[in-house]
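Memo to structure team: turn this sequence into structure tokens by end of day. - J.P.
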Amino acid sequence: MLESAAVSTEQPGDPSTPQRAMDGFLTDFARQNPDLAWFAQLVAMQRQAAAQVQSDPPELEAARVEVAALVEQLHQSEARAEKLQRHARRLAEELDDAQERLSDLAAILGACGLCWGEDRGCRSCRGRGKPGMFAPEPATRSRFFAEAARPGEGPASGTKPTDNSERS
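Reply from structure team:
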């Protein structure tokens, strides 16, 4: 069995000669030992896989380049998503602040803080909470007007409003 593998007509520089010799050896081994034929098949498959890996470097390199590009795109997308999440949190905070101010103003004017009397399905007023419908809350009104009347604050002191609603 080993003699057939050792006796070969190798030609220098022919890489397929050692592979053919090994293939012949595995074939003889499987023929002489039928119970171990599975082992010969396993070795042959491993050799084929190794030969295929050695023959695929350009495809492998192209795949690595593509993976690197996808990783970079993923990092950029994650950075954009994080920026959008920060922006969404800031907008949610601004919305909460605006809703709180509107609720305070509704309490000062005696209106429903949820719908201002415009929603008949409102769980608080059933659409009847227009300004003047409820007694104004004195504590909220005094706090609101105290903040507005503080000296050095507000439009009377020469400061300009920060929102864009008063542009002409």
